[in-house]
Design a protein that fits this description.
- By secondary structure, this protein is mainly alpha-helical.
- It is 70% helix and 0% strand.
- It has 13 helices and no strands.
């Protein structure tokens, strides 16, 4: 699939997204700058679209980086415990720092996401049986352990409902002033593109990277930091969006290969298209009510993920 075709699809879906919602808004309504429809369009619809674009591109690229560094097509922030570690960091900040600021929550979540991802990579280094399906299953179990700890602590502190509602993957509450944290993912995406060739070399193994004069540990740490930054910004702004960083890079690799310099632009745009489709579906299925985007992504993504699992040997190293 050509990049320009994905770009056109993203533009068309973005236009559709701007004019779908509980309140009907038409392009004609925007001619009156003082109308309520124009205010809603500027305060809600545009920020929501920008949040979808940044989240879709960011999480897809985060998954692509993790798959390259771990040399496994089924690894992503969803299946490596990154998102679960970020949730645990948020809960810890709420438990032990009652007057914690939003910035401090971001720092806590980032630190836990980075530590959780690094721990998972260390676990991979110590696994002898690195089957293409076995590795993500370990990641899922690892993430479930972190999630269980979060659930237990949240239940004990009576914060579970608050945490669950806040981290539900949805763009419903996105308005101007509540999505700007996602802009942090832009420099992370740019750095991912600049380091694309190094990530590709690092994905061939530590010995191979060292033979080419590449500092494997440095590149690995840079990749993990980028994944943690992107995952944290998405979790704190939108909530948990499953499968996005898993299936989009796999789809791109099917027709474009594994050269990150070539696949990063396609992965970003396809991630935007996929998330826009899921969000639009969530808004029209039971219109004027809305299904959270994490539900539509989970339904479609799980079907694709199961298909990939059944064909797992085709994705073997």
């Amino acid at each position: 699939m050509k990049l320009w075709m994905l770009g056109i699809a993203a533009i068309v879906l973005s236009f559709i997204s701007l004019f779908i919602g509980a309140i009907d808004i038409t392009p004609k309504d925007l001619l009156n700058w003082e109308s309520d429809e124009t205010h809603i369009f500027l305060i809600s619809r545009i920020p929501r679209l920008l949040a979808i674009i940044l989240a879709g591109a960011g999480m897809s690229i985060a998954g692509l980086i993790m798959q390259s560094l771990s040399r496994n097509k089924f690894v992503s922030p969803t299946t490596a415990g990154t998102l679960d570690a970020a949730k645990l960091g948020i809960l810890i900040s709420m438990l032990f720092f009652t007057n914690v600021t939003y910035t401090q929550q971001v720092i806590f979540s980032f630190a836990f996401a980075l530590a959780g991802t690094f721990l998972f990579m260390q676990i991979l280094d110590r696994i002898k049986f690195k089957d293409v399906i076995f590795v993500p299953l370990i990641g899922i179990m690892y993430g479930n352990i972190l999630s269980s700890i979060t659930t237990f602590l949240g239940y004990e502190a009576d914060l579970l409902q608050n945490l669950s509602s806040w981290l539900m993957g949805s763009f419903t509450l996105i308005i101007a002033g509540r999505y700007e944290l996602l802009y942090v993912s832009i420099p992370a995406i740019i750095l991912a593109y600049l380091y694309a060739n190094k990530f590709t070399v690092a994905g061939m193994g530590e010995d191979f990277a060292r033979n080419l004069g590449l500092s494997y540990k440095l590149v690995l740490n840079i990749g993990l930091v980028l994944v943690a930054v992107i995952s944290t910004t998405v979790v704190l702004t939108v909530g948990v969006i499953p499968f996005l960083g898993l299936i989009v890079p796999n789809i791109v690799s099917l027709y474009l290969g594994d050269n990150l310099r070539k696949t990063i632009p396609h992965t970003a745009v396809l991630g935007i298209v996929f998330l826009l489709i899921c969000d639009i579906l969530g808004r029209i299925i039971i219109h004027p009510y809305e299904i959270p985007v994490n539900v539509t992504v989970a339904v479609i993504g799980s079907a694709i993920f199961l298909t990939m699992l059944l064909r797992g040997r085709a994705y073997a190293k």
